[in-house]
Design goal:
Elements (H helix, E strand, L loop, with lengths): L1 H16 L5 H4 L2 E8 L6 H20 L7 E8 L3 H14 L4 E4 L3 H14 L3 E3 L15 E3 L4 H20 L7 E7 L2 H17 L2 E8 L7 H9 L4 E5 L2 H13 L6 E4 L7 H7 L1 H4 L3 E4 L13 H12 L7 H19 L4 H9 L28 E6 L2 E6 L16
Parallel strand pairs: 1-2, 1-3, 3-4, 4-5, 6-7, 6-8, 8-9, 9-10
Antiparallel strand pairs: 10-11, 11-12
Helix pairs in contact: 3-13, 4-5, 6-7, 9-10, 13-14
């Protein structure tokens, strides 16, 4: 009897001493939050982003979890910033998660991370692009994906390096129009676009904000048309992207190039709503998509197969892939920390060193003191024949850039 008691006490002490000790660990799990917009206007890409995280969890659990503990996640629905705050509070204070993963939308991420930082809980951003997310001096906020500045710079540089050469003209001879929805997403990207365009000497003739909830973008299109804009740079969600293409056709406006900053430009749903013939030739600077050279994106082909096996359809955008890649990087970091203690996790994240070209997105991973991955860069894609194919840089490309937008 005494031997049994001593054995029981020893087992209890081992559990208490475990770096994953606590209610979740006692049940053999590590508990995380999954905070995404699962309903409302952002739900399509919110759910698509979550699917990548979910696949990463399943893959990790099949391989034994983290330090032998299975990953359990609790979903939080962040429809707007206020709800993001409320759900982040619930996940950290009621559900006692060890970390939160998310979130796709910058405004939601900015709100939720204020809660988690005060609570001392790591927050792993896998999709939101607004630069301030990792520029506020927070210790426990980390992001794997590229920022709005990266997107804006790639868009402006693509006008110079890809679009102008394809058109056979000087980039400085092209009239550029910048249009954007007026939330944090659009404001941030367009701001960097204006700065980069000025640095590069591009001729920006219009900068036009609008509400993403707008039901009529005709005034924006007529301004672009009357100014003779050759290249349109748009930062938009799905509904306003669809509206822009439909009304651009209605007004007979045919610029030489239209380029989006991810968002609505990246989804098959947008292409299907607009019509493949009308979306033909549209450019998209974005997270890595699925028609990309697999030599530059090891693991991409396997990811697509897993996605189709689980959800019965092709991936709807590269957001799922970005979340899958990011979650895997952070799972590895937490495992190497051998603890869910926030300071130990931070130290482990800052030690991550993955070269470019060694993940399924083609990105590498190396984090600054601010928690930003400095090895994530968006690619340039184009809608061709109903598919979004990578056209730049050359190492990742599977097709040549074509000129013109829409049916001729």
């Amino acid at each position: 009897m005494k031997s049994f008691a001593r054995a029981a006490l020893a087992a209890a002490l081992l559990v208490a001493a475990s770096p994953f000790a606590g209610p979740a660990a006692a049940q053999g799990t590590v508990k995380f939050g999954a905070l995404y917009p699962f309903s409302g206007g952002l739900a399509l890409l919110g759910d698509e982003s979550f699917r990548g995280f979910e696949l990463a969890v399943e893959e990790r659990n099949a391989a034994g979890g983290i330090d032998g503990k299975k990953i359990e996640f609790i979903k939080g629905d962040a429809v707007d910033p206020n709800q993001a705050v409320g759900e982040a509070r619930r996940l950290t204070s009621v559900d006692k998660v060890s970390a939160i993963f998310g979130t796709y939308s910058s405004s939601l991420s900015l709100a939720a991370t204020q809660v988690t930082e005060l609570a001392g809980v790591p927050y792993f951003e896998l999709g939101a692009v607004s630069d301030p997310i990792t520029e506020r001096g927070f210790k426990y906020v980390f992001r794997t994906n590229a920022t709005a500045r990266d997107f804006a710079n790639r868009m402006v540089d693509s006008v110079i390096e890809a679009v102008a050469p394809a058109l056979g003209v000087k980039a400085t001879d092209l009239k550029v129009g910048i249009i954007h929805e007026d939330s944090l997403y659009g404001q941030t990207v367009s701001g960097y676009q204006k700065t980069r365009a000025k640095e590069k000497g591009l001729n920006v003739v219009e900068v036009l904000p609008y509400s993403a909830k707008s039901v009529d973008l005709t005034p924006v299109i007529l301004r672009l048309k009357s100014a003779g804009v050759d290249v349109v740079l748009q930062t938009s969600y799905q509904n306003d992207t669809v509206l822009f293409f439909r009304q651009m056709k209605d007004q007979g406006y045919k610029p030489k190039a239209v380029m989006g900053a991810g968002g609505g430009y990246s989804t098959r749903d947008t292409m299907q709503a607009v019509g493949a013939e009308n979306m033909e030739g549209a450019l998209d600077v974005d997270f890595t998509q699925f028609n990309t050279n697999p030599k530059a994106t090891p693991g991409l082909t396997e990811f697509v197969a897993k996605y189709k096996a689980k959800y019965g359809i092709d991936p709807r955008s590269g957001h799922s892939l970005a979340n899958y890649m990011g979650a895997k990087v952070f799972f590895d970091a937490i495992a190497s920390a051998k603890s869910t203690d926030a300071d130990k996790v931070r130290a482990a994240v800052l030690k991550v060193d993955i070269p470019v070209g060694e993940t399924a997105t083609g990105w590498g991973a190396k984090f600054s003191e601010q928690g930003q991955n400095t090895r994530a860069q968006p690619f340039l894609m184009q809608w061709q024949g109903g598919n979004l194919v990578t056209v730049f840089p050359e190492a990742a490309a599977v097709a040549k850039l074509k000129t013109g937008v829409g049916a001729n």
